[in-house]
Structures are given as C-alpha cells and as structure tokens.
Design brief:
Length: 347
C-alpha cells in the first residue's frame, strides 16, 4: 500500500481535475499514436510500476479504490506497453511490482508471467504477515466500515503503531481480516510456486509495513527480522520495497544505509519516474510509477509518457542513489503545452 491521502469530500481537487483531463485526452488518442508516444519518450529508460491488488470487479466498500486495478485494464496496459517498448533496447521491457502479497495479485502474476516473458514480475511480501496469518490494518478498517461501525479516518486507524512492533503479530482483528477471502494474502506455498517462474522474483516489504511510524530502533529491528524471516521462508533476499515508499516521508537515509549494510539489495520507492538500466545494482534505490487502478490503460500510458519525457531533473532525495548522484530521471510537466509538445513528437 502506498497512499493514505484522499481529496476532501465534495470538492473537485486539482488532482481529480488533472485525472479527468488526462483520461479524456488519452481516450481520444488511438493506441498506435499512444504507443509511438511511449516508445519515443521512454527509449533507453527502464520502467517499473508499483501495483497492489488485481480484481475482476470492484469491491463496493474499497477504502482506497486506486489500489485495485481491474484485470482487463491491466491486461490491456501490459499488452500495449510491451508492443510500444518492443525495441527500447534494455531488458526487461517492463517491471511490474505488486506490493503487500495479496492472493489476487499472485494469481494474476502466476497466469501472466508465462504469457509475457519479457516482463519482469516482482512480488513484495511482508513475511511476518504470511507466517502469522495476518491481514493489514487498512483491510481491518474497510471491514469496520462495511459493518457500519463508527471508526475514525483510515490514517488514525493505521497510526500510531503499538509501542513494540511485535504487538502487530498478536492482533486478533488482523487475524480475523486475513480469514476473510476478499482480503486474503497469498500463502507461503503459493508464493514458493509462483517464484519458480523464470521472470518472477519475490522481495521483502518489512514485517510491520509501519517503518515510517515506528521509532528508528524498532524500524531497524523490523528490517533485520523481516530479512531473516524472508530468507528462511523463500531463500536469499535481493529486493526490498519500502512500505508507502516516498523518500523522506515514509523512509529515511538511515533505513537505506541500514539495508545497504544488511544485504546487497535493490530497493524500490513509489516515486513515479523512469530510471536508467545502469542504475540498477546492489544498494540502489530505484523509482516505480504508481499504477492508478481507477485510470484507463490509455490514461496510464499517456501519464507515463508525459513523466518520462525529460531527463536530469534532480530527485527530491538525492541520497537515495548509492553513487551519490540523482537517481531519478525527469518529470515532465503535465500541463497542456507539455502534452501538446509530446503528442507533436509522435505525429
Ligand atoms: Zn505496501
């Protein structure tokens, strides 16, 4: 999970307006034009995406609907992006990373990974949740809302954590959530099975999913213990995705340095940029585009093309790059001029 902010109720936020414009412009663009746009703007760059859940239909009570993408939308996106980036020059053509280890996402990856061998599939799991059979706090929140209970905002439901993060593993409400099919996480066996596929890799996502809210010594202990637990369950750990994922908000330099000392990991954020293939090495902290499950496949493709257009903009936290230089590439302005320029390139 990576987002807790929602627009104020009853108001059309700037981001909602931007989404609306983006969706309508993208809908008017034929796929061949969009594919040329994506190919032109992302050539020579690597693209990774952060997703969470995959559904055949939407759950009426979703607390964070953007975190679930419909299967048909994701299929369309993957197919079109693979075609657009067939000749982009760096392998894999696309990285799709699913955070939190939900059963629906793992089932999706198990069926699509063989179909798309040029796509890299990463599955980030919280080993403590799998081991203890626990769900997530935001799912407990959704269950409370469904039952008509009066609960405060999701943010206050999730934070602050208990004083000791191990208390997370004793919570009966989280065990109850995990037993409800619609919030089910993949089992240990399912994860071992999907990891047998050549283009699927498992990674650690911490035990508590709360490292930004924990005192530093507890957060570092979580990183140690979740790495050990991951390796006992799945073998060597080479990938880590920061929960929520924004540098200097959800994780700090100290977390990164600790993980660099712990294992030769590739670490992932939720900053929506491309990266260069040569940046991907042990100790690197790499960006991932956050996949908005409420957008169409075309809107996602257009947004990626817009954000990937320019190079060399400085990342908000330059310390995330192990070489000391800015890790992320540029963000294109999503204003109308930028959009028209980008489209003109491809026509
Ligand atoms: Zn997560």
């Amino acid at each position: 999970m990576n987002r807790l902010n929602r627009p104020p109720p009853g108001r059309l936020s700037r981001s909602t307006l931007r989404s609306e414009v983006l969706t309508r412009v993208a809908a008017a663009m034929p796929w061949p034009v969009l594919r040329r746009l994506v190919a032109a703007t992302t050539r020579g760059k690597s693209l990774a995406f952060c997703l969470h859940r995959v559904g055949r239909e939407r759950r009426p009570s979703e607390a964070e609907p953007a975190l679930t993408v419909l299967e048909a939308v994701l299929d369309e996106f993957v197919q079109q992006m693979c075609e657009a980036r067939r000749e982009h020059g760096t392998a894999p053509c696309l990285t799709l990373a699913f955070d939190d280890g939900y059963a629906d996402a793992v089932e999706y990856v198990a069926t699509r990974a063989p179909r798309y061998p040029h796509v890299e599939w990463l599955l980030f799991v919280c080993p403590g949740k799998i081991h203890h059979g626990l769900g997530f706090r935001w799912d407990a929140y959704e269950a409370h809302i469904e039952q008509g209970r009066n609960v405060p905002s999701m943010r206050s439901f999730i934070q602050p954590p208990d004083a000791d993060y191990h208390a997370e593993h004793q919570r009966e409400d989280l065990a109850e959530v995990a037993r409800q099919g619609r919030f089910a996480l993949a089992t240990h066996e399912q994860l071992l099975e999907v990891a047998e596929l050549d283009n699927v890799t498992l990674g650690n996502h911490s035990n508590s999913h709360l490292i930004s809210a924990l005192p530093m010594h507890q957060a570092l202990r979580d990183l140690d213990e979740s790495t050990e637990m991951f390796e006992e369950m799945f073998g060597p750990c080479g990938q880590f995705a920061f929960p929520f994922g924004i540098p200097e908000l959800h994780f700090q330099r100290e977390h990164v340095e600790h993980l660099r000392r712990l294992r030769p990991l590739v670490m992932w954020t939720t900053e929506s940029y491309p990266y260069r293939a040569e940046q991907r090495r042990a100790g690197a902290v790499l960006p991932r585009f956050v996949f908005n499950g409420l957008w169409s496949a075309k809107a996602m493709a257009l947004w990626v093309a817009l954000r990937a257009r320019r190079l060399d903009r400085v990342n908000r936290a330059t310390w995330v790059d192990s070489a000391g230089s800015p890790a992320a590439l540029a963000v294109a302005g999503s204003n109308l001029i930028s959009l028209l320029e980008a489209i003109a390139v491809c026509l």
